[in-house]
Amino acid sequence: MIKKRWLLALGALCFAPAACTGTLDSSGGSGVGAGPATGMGTNPGSADGYGGSSSTQDASTCSPGIPATSQIPRVKNAAYDAMVRDLLGVTALASAGNAPPSSLLVPDFDGSLSDIAWNGYLTAADKIAAEVMASANKAKFMSCDPSAEACLTETIKTFGRKAFRRPLTDAEVTSFLRLNSLTPKGTPAEVAEAILYAFLASPSFILLPELAQDKEGTALKLSSYEVATRLSFLLWGTVPDEQLNAAADAGQLVSKEQILAQAQRMLQSDKLTPTLSNFFHRYAGIESSSHWVNNATHDATKYPRFNAAAYAPLLAEIDAVFENVVQGGGSFADLFLSNVGFVNKDSAALYGLDPAQYTADLTRVELDATRRPGLFTRAGFLSTFAHYDATSPILRGAFITTNVLGIPLGQPPAGALQTPIPPGNYTSQRQEIEALTSPGTCAGCHHTLINPSGYVLERYDAVGSWQDTDQLGGAIDGTADVYLTPTVSQHISSPLELMTAIAGAPGAKRYYAQALVAFASSRTPNANDACTVDQLSRNLAKDGYRLLDLLADYTETDSFRLRTVAN
After folding, report:
1. Do both 304 and 389 map to the same domain?
2. Domain boundary among 187, 206, 225
3. Which end of the chain has fewer CB atoms surrounding its CB within 10 Å, N or C?
């Protein structure tokens, strides 16, 4: 078949930008050709496929400079699906059991592209091209008769501009046109399908190269095309739209002001929603790779209001709450104080609401503002950070301490997780945990930094419902001295007081900004990015500052529009 002959005829042809020129950093490798390339890698924690170099530097102290970033990261699978959807209208492949195109790819991973992973891209390209050319989606690829003079040339230039996120070079156009001169010669329809296959199998489609060599100080300045790609994959997780492409073609993505204007426009789009969801999953510790999301079941005898069908809408609720705050123009404090909830027939009872009043769809509700302030009093979070048949002040408290307040904790002593609760006549889960963590090797961290915020959250049972009586029969003691910094504590007597204190804590703002920068840049927190984190956390502290503006402000930073090469 002509598509397979293309691999043999053009196997040595380079489809990367600028004929595969450019110096690759240590996360890259050889020039990218039509076959597997050692540089086709990604980094962990990527929002959109951009790679980055990890750092062991102190991430709490600013050291001016631009962190090194990979020049040729692969797109993540979610972005691959979004690109195929937006370019070709394909969301599912009949030849793959009506699964999304990425079902043919290996799961996202770090490092060089293996033969198995490369074959996944070739298989996906083959099936996508065949189905597109046999359906109405063909018009999204080409709008002319492939047998007509100049049709293939025009298609290659027009589709290639969108697929490669930049104009094709004359050499690249010529290379694609060679598919029309192979022997034996294919029919016009076969040639057109082979050209689409070649685009989808090209590293310039699969990768997000950054090879511009213009200097700004000691750093390299991204081209307008590279900035457009960064913007689009950061905010939308897909290829640039027509307006962004037009700005790139006009060279109007050079200054901070030009970049900000496009970012502000893009932040108003519904395309932003998946990015917000992905970021919040990372921030809240419930991304799909997290082992915590396996806490989806609880003892039905102890908690009859919870059923297995409730867990998915509970997780969907915290997504909806986050999106409501951010896209509704909310502030950092609103994350911790908003009483807006979203329930359905399976989750309503956990909030004391009548399930009969709701359907399978999520419905917006106003919850008790004193009992349900903010995201971390929602049943989705509380039931995730709990045990099958009991609450867990340790899990909840450790999360609040590290992932919300940004106070680092060391690793627990060996065997700590297997330590049994000492025998005793306990009437509350708090009493059990106090006894469990009283030994000297535990008390230092647990009694000061970990347990206290977890004790305040004992007002919620293992499935996230409000409780005044402990499962063991005693009264709930939800008061504690909670450390908002490693050295400063505040006496807290209710979940509302806890969330109000967190909303005003500088450390919580800085940790949120750090999480956003790590997500947006796909880099481990480091001393260079700490400068950006400091700047953004100061913005968060301003009265009336919207969370939505934080993403826009990030695109104005030097580390967004500049790059450096690792030594």
Report:
1. yes
2. 206
3. C
d(CA 466, CA 549): 34
Q: What are phi and psi of 16, to 5 degrees?
A: -75, 160
| 487 and 391 together in one domain | yes
Is 384 a member of any domain? yes
User: Is residue 537 a part of any domain in this protein?
Assistant: no
- State mean pLDDT over 63-74: 86
Looking at the fold, whether 98 and 193 belong to one and the same domain comes out as yes
- Dump pLDDT digits (tens) for 205-215: 999 999 999 99
Q: Considering the domain boundaries, does residue 361 fall inside one? A: yes
Question: Which three-class secondary structure string do you get for 113-140?
Answer: CCHHHHHHHHHHHHHHHHHHHCCCCHHH
Long-range contact set of residues 217-223: C-beta below 8 Å, sequence gap at least 24: 218/564, 219/66, 219/558, 219/562, 219/563, 219/564, 220/562, 220/563, 220/564, 220/565, 221/254, 221/561, 221/562, 222/561, 222/562, 222/563
Domain co-membership, 153 together with 68: yes
334 within 8 A of 540, measured Cβ to Cβ = no
Say whether both 197 and 286 belong to one domain.
no
Query: What is the mean pLDDT of the segment spanning 478-492?
Result: 96
Which of the listed residues 503, 527, 558 is the one where a domain comes to its end? 503
Is the same domain home to 460 and 335? Answer: yes
Cβ neighbourhood burial of 373 (10 Å; 0-12, 13-18, 19+): buried
* Gap between the Cα atoms of 450 and 139, Å rounded: 58
Question: Residue 467 and residue 475: Cα distance in Å, rounded?
Answer: 9
Structural domain includes residue 231: no
* 238, 244, 249, 255 alpha-carbon torsion, rounded to 10°: -110
> What is the reported pLDDT for 116?
95
Query: What is the phi/psi pair of residue 515, to 5°?
Result: -60, -40
Contacts for 151 with CB less than 8 Å, ≥ 6 apart: 142, 144, 145
Report the DSSP beta bridge partners of residue 460.
466
Exposed e or buried b for every residue in 37-47, given b needs 16+ CB within 10 A? bebbbbbebbb
Indicate if the pLDDT at residue 566 is higher than 80.
no
Q: Taking residues 494-506, what's their average pLDDT?
A: 98
Can you give the residue range of the structural domain that contains 173? 2-206
For 379-432, give the DSSP string. Answer: HHHHHHSS-SSS--HHHHHHHIIIIIS-----PPPTTGGGPPPPP---SSHHHH
For residue range 75-115, list pLDDT tens digits in order: 999 999 999 999 999 999 999 999 999 999 999 987 888 99
Read off the tokens for 54.
Answer: 């990890």
Rounded Cα–Cα distance for residues 321 and 562 (Å): 34
Q: Does 194 share its domain with 280? A: no
Residue 164, φ and ψ in degrees, nearest 5: -90, -5
- 2: pLDDT strictly greater than 70: no
Q: How many domains does the chain have?
A: 2
* pLDDT above 80 for 285: no
